[in-house]
Design a protein that fits this description.
It is built from 11 helices and no strands. With 259 residues, it is mostly helical.
Length: 259
């Protein structure tokens, strides 16, 4: 028996999945990258009382020639345009729906690789050591793996210690990629912010892409018995912790926006 094929002009199903766009790395100066990371940090945080001022500042940056490469400026400007159009209350509602209610849109980077297991405690401890090593103290109520906090830290750090932040983001690159893929699939305005961030990061290697696909298929791990498996975590746990940089008196990380 032959199965009749419906005419092309009368499709029964339409694909909802959107192919994730390829994002090319954009070479940035240290100042440009700090600007991008700070902008992404502010836009990925929950909108606070100064939300309008944040939009004003980022719109000024993206509209001023020479401040940022045009590709990145366009992505940030697209998000700001949407935020202006819908208003802060709608942005807040979308934020909660997006980042608080969807596991694949978690802003806590260690969650993607460790889930809510004891391994995550090890990962968070390493993150805390990172803050101490670069001479800052996280003043927010968020966990230390909160992406906006890490981006702000990277934007504020001096050149001689920025490598520590680079390495931290690199070890959790799969989480950033999964977050972007989820936001893009949802057609979320925040996908433009993640696109801008990804442009500032090194290109994704085949190894990172494969690990990302594995995490997407399997999801965050469940609790495992014992903690001896920490040697298989996707970040170093056996290397010596960098010695803390002396913190200037009264110079602490500014408090992140309320969430």
């Amino acid at each position: 028996m032959t199965i009749m094929t419906p005419p092309r002009s009368f499709p029964r199903f339409l694909s909802k999945a959107q192919p994730e766009p390829k994002v090319k790395h954009v070479t940035l100066t240290r100042k440009e990258r700090s600007t991008v990371w700070m902008a992404c940090s502010l836009l990925l945080d929950y909108p606070g009382d100064n939300w309008t001022l944040i939009l004003d500042e980022i719109e000024l940056i993206t509209s001023t020639p020479g401040v940022l490469p045009q590709q990145i400026a366009n992505e940030l400007a697209t998000f700001c345009s949407w935020a202006r159009k819908v208003g802060q209350q709608q942005v807040e509602q979308h934020y909660v729906t997006t980042f608080d209610h969807k596991r694949r849109c978690a802003l806590e980077l260690t969650y993607y690789a460790t889930g809510d297991t004891r391994q995550r405690g090890i990962a968070l401890s390493i993150m805390k050591d990172l803050y101490s090593a670069v001479g800052w103290q996280c003043a927010s109520t968020h966990l230390p793996d909160y992406l906006p906090a890490l981006l702000e830290l990277g934007a504020r750090c001096k050149e001689d210690i920025i490598e520590l932040i680079d390495n931290t983001l690199a070890t959790h690159r799969e989480g950033i990629e999964i977050l972007h893929a989820a936001l893009h699939d949802m057609d979320s305005p925040w996908s433009h912010v993640l696109t801008a961030l990804r442009m500032s990061l090194p290109a994704v290697t085949p190894e990172i892409y494969e690990r990302m696909q594995t995490l997407i298929r399997q999801g965050p791990p469940s609790e495992m018995v014992g903690i001896k498996d920490h040697e298989y975590l996707p970040w170093p746990t056996q290397t010596a912790t960098p010695q803390p940089v002396p913190t200037p008196s009264g110079n602490k990380a500014q408090e992140s926006e309320e969430s």
